[in-house]
Amino acid sequence: xxxxxxxxAQALREVIHPLTGASNDYDALLESIGDARFxxxxxxxxxxxxFYRERARLTRRLIEERGFxxxxxxxxxPDAYRVNRFVRGQGEDGSALEALGDFQRFPRWMxxxxxxxxxxxxxxxxxxxHPGAEVGFYGLDLYSLHRSTRAVVAYLEAVDPEAAGRxxxxxxxxxxxxxxxxxxxYATEYGRKEPCEDAAVAQLLxxxxxxxxxxxxxxxxxxxxxxxxxxxxxxxxxxxxxxxxRGRDESxxxxxxxxxxxxxxxxxxxxxxxxxxxxxxxxxxxxxxxxRASEMGWRRGEFNLGQLTRxxxxxxxxxxxxxxxxxxxxxxxxxxxxxRTKRVRPGLEGSLEDLCHEVxxxxxxxxxxxxxxxxxxxxxxxxxxxxxxxxxxxxxRRSHHVQTRPADMYDALLHFDETSAVxxxxxxxxxxxxxxxxxxxxxx
Length: 444
Prior knowledge:
Layout: H1 5-13, E1 17-18, H2 27-33, E2 38-41, H3 49-66, E3 70-76, H4 77-87, H5 96-99, H6 114-129, E4 136-141, H7 145-159, H8 161-171, H9 181-189, H10 197-209, H11 211-214, H12 220-243, H13 248-272, E5 279-282, H14 285-288, H15 295-298, H16 305-312, E6 317-331, E7 340-344, H17 352-359, E8 363-367, H18 373-377, E9 382-385, H19 396-400, E10 401-404, H20 406-409, E11 412-419
Parallel strand pairs: 2-5, 2-6, 3-4, 3-5, 6-11
Antiparallel strand pairs: 1-8, 6-7, 8-11, 9-10
Helix pairs in contact: 1-17, 3-6, 7-8, 7-12, 8-10, 9-12, 10-12, 12-13
């Protein structure tokens, strides 16, 4: 059945749930989520205040009312683990601002912003009120190759200096390229240097083999898990940086497979300690919206974390997408450039954003699993906007839009018609290190 823009907007008006800021805003959404153990909450940009605020608001309810045990985010593992120590009352940091101090790679504002700082403070307080049932905070991404290898060596120095020497020797393979993994990927992919793959794999296997022995040492099981995940990251990052020179789809798939492996490792580690795991995931819509319902999947052969999680836990996964029509966003003009407040253009005619705007409600959420005229229409292809850390409004259509089937990508959609830029904690939030990722969409 063909719907006009106005008739489809009317169909949506009949099934949306307005969001007014009231304490019961998400009651029906929590009922829709039900007993899901994995709630994946996306974002349509990396720099929108309302996305961070509402994601945290919903997550707090999932933790308090549904017993969720971990928050896993699109961030580097060692950086996020410093936050994990802080929210558990460990480490030396005295504030959320200090605990977020390892997030120095571009784009720093993605995690060093006011909304994340508020949530980290809240999580620390929650854990203090619930000793023995603390909620963790973890990173899923793989851009921290050199920091992760250093973390493995540092852990082993404390528990087995001889093993630390072996790790240092293995990881020295990367030293020829300084702190630039792109140089490593280029040199090895084009035959100028031998890959470090065998060394990275050997180090991970040694840590896995010795887990029972080392995990009961002076630093305990959590610290061994931290080290083992860093070793896994080094192995996967090594593969990723070589794949960057073979094609976009292959490197994207390596990255999202690593995220899925990390999520599975979190579950196995927690359940190995006798506590069933329920995890909230924060990442961009492009990672969490099922890629099979996007041209990322059907044209480019890319999969993503949302698809892999649905395939691994089909009855236990709920995916929530976020969208906006217009407003402002914190983003850069290009990679490694300072953060700016940029105006987001109104949604393109016929796009998901345009349709949500036509509804005429400032903020609302929509259950996409129902069978009605609105959700049926949203199973048809339409443009959807994706803004990463770079926003180029001058090439809006080409740079930031993808054909999707929204009702197949997500189980629910949260729409905020006019949004505002996230506030960075750093005035110079555009500084970067050398571990520059391959990105999608522009600057994702």
